[in-house]
Amino acid sequence: MARDTRRWLLALALASLVVLAGCSGSGNDAAMQATAGGNPDLSNEEKATQSGGGGGANSNGNAVQAQNRALIRTGTVEVTVNDYDAARRNLSREVERLGGFVSDSTQQVNKRGNRTWTTGELVLRVPKDNFSALISRAKQTGQVREASTSTKDVTKKLVDLEARLQNLKAQRQKLRDLYAAANDTENVLEIQKRLSEVQSEIERLEARRKSLNRKVAYSTLTVRLNERPPEGPSTSDTESWYDTGLLSAFVSSAHGVVVVARGLAVGLAYGLPYVLAFGLPVAGVVAFWRRRRSDDSAGADLPDAPDSGDSGDAAEEDG
After folding, report:
1. Strand partners of residue 127
2. Where do the segments described as Disordered lie (predicted)?
3. Structural domains for the chain
4. Residues in Cβ contact with 18 at an 8 Å cutoff, skipping those fewer than 6 apart
5. What is the pLDDT of residues 272-305, one digit of tens each?
6. Residue 216: exposed, middle, or buried by beta-carbon count in 10 A (0-12, 13-18, 19+)?
7. Given phi > 0 = left and psi -120 to 50 = alpha, else beta, which region is 149?
């Protein structure tokens, strides 16, 4: 009886945890929205502005609220440069000077004749306060072909994540207290299972929050560098046809003959099955028609046979 009572109490405690988590989630959500200024990704200047703007006018409050938003800023700049390597080095030094780093890079070498030019892409990460400066510096690298920026507000996502994390951590602590007080094997296993689920969810949400905070703290700029391609081969790079050596000309012509002969042979091999499949029946029909036509012509040319009555009359006249 006592054992059944403990099980009921444990089930009731777990149900209470779920209900309290839902109720506290709504309260924490409202509390977090009211205290959005506690975002750890805010700069010292923004935090000071937020703490000192409580008694200001409504416009100042709106400005502070806008500054406290968690924004993910990204941009793309495509420029044409005269020297790819020099532009890449300058951008790498500039992003390091602004406190950022080169996240990814790709490079492709194009070739036309004996001339080459390079195109590539750099993904730059820079602190959010220096994002505009980096865009300006990237535009000065060469001739701008395209430029765009975008902003994504993730303030609500971070607030929700923080509220859910607080709720889950409260559940985890209560489950740990229940685990310490449990003395039944079945109850211990059930609490362990629930505690493991809560811990996994906490780790997942913390990883997501960390990723969002990193994207907010460091803006991303993708710079596409296109080196100017050569306009065309110079006259010194080409030679007239009559400057070709005799042996080279003969070998080139012989090679052309071989290529043409081989092409004809391959074409014949491709066409032979069609000739056998469709040509032979057509040829047989034509031959049969011509033969029948010739037989009809030969029958039409033969003289008509004399009539028997006419023969008798001719005999009487002779008598």
Report:
1. 218
2. 32-62, 295-319
3. 2-49+59-65+155-215 (no CATH), 70-153+221-227 (3.30.70)
4. none
5. 788 777 777 888 888 888 888 777 776 665 555 5
6. buried
7. beta
